[in-house]
Amino acid sequence: MAVHIRLARAGTKKKPFYRVVVTDQRSPRGGRFLENIGTFDPAKEMKATEGKTPLHIDEERLAHWVGRGAQPSETLGQLIKASKKAAAAAATK
C-alpha cells in the first residue's frame, strides 16, 4: 500500500477549502483517509511579511508520516516549501 499526503477538497462550489490528509494512493480525492493533518484555505492571502500562510499543518505528524515513507503530492510539496520560506522570511525580520 503506497501512502500519500495530499489535498482533499471540501467547501462549496467556487469556494474551495482543502484538508491535508494522509491516504492510500488508490483512494479518490475526497474519499477515505488515514489521518487529517492540516488545512489549506486558498481564499486567504499569503502574507509573507507576517509569516502567515493559508496552509496549517501539524509538523510533528507530517514528519511522522514522511518518516514512515509517505510521499507528499507535488502540489502539497510546493505549498509546504512556500510556507517554510514565508516563515523563514518573517523570522529574519
Summarize the structure in words.
This protein has 93 residues and is α+β, with helices and mostly antiparallel strands. The chain has one domain: Ribosomal protein S16 (S16 Ribosomal Protein, Chain: A). Helices cover 30% and strands 33% of the residues. A five-stranded mixed sheet has the order 4-3-2-1-5. The termini are far apart.
Query: Any idea of the CATH topology?
Result: S16 Ribosomal Protein, Chain: A
CATH hierarchy class name: Alpha Beta
| Proper CATH architecture | 2-Layer Sandwich
Mean pLDDT: 86
Strand order of the largest sheet: 4-3-2-1-5
Count of the separate structural domains: 1
Counted by DSSP, the helix tally is 2
Fraction in beta strands: 25-35%
Seen as an oligomer or otherwise, the chain set is: single chain
Regions with little confidence, pLDDT below 50 for 5+ residues: none
| Strand count | 5
For the sheet with most strands, the description reads:
5 strands, mixed
Distance linking N and C termini:
44 Å
Silhouette? flat
The CATH superfamily turns out to be: Ribosomal protein S16
Structural class by SSE content: alpha+beta
Radius of gyration: 14 Å
Which bin fits the share of residues in helices?
Answer: 25-40%
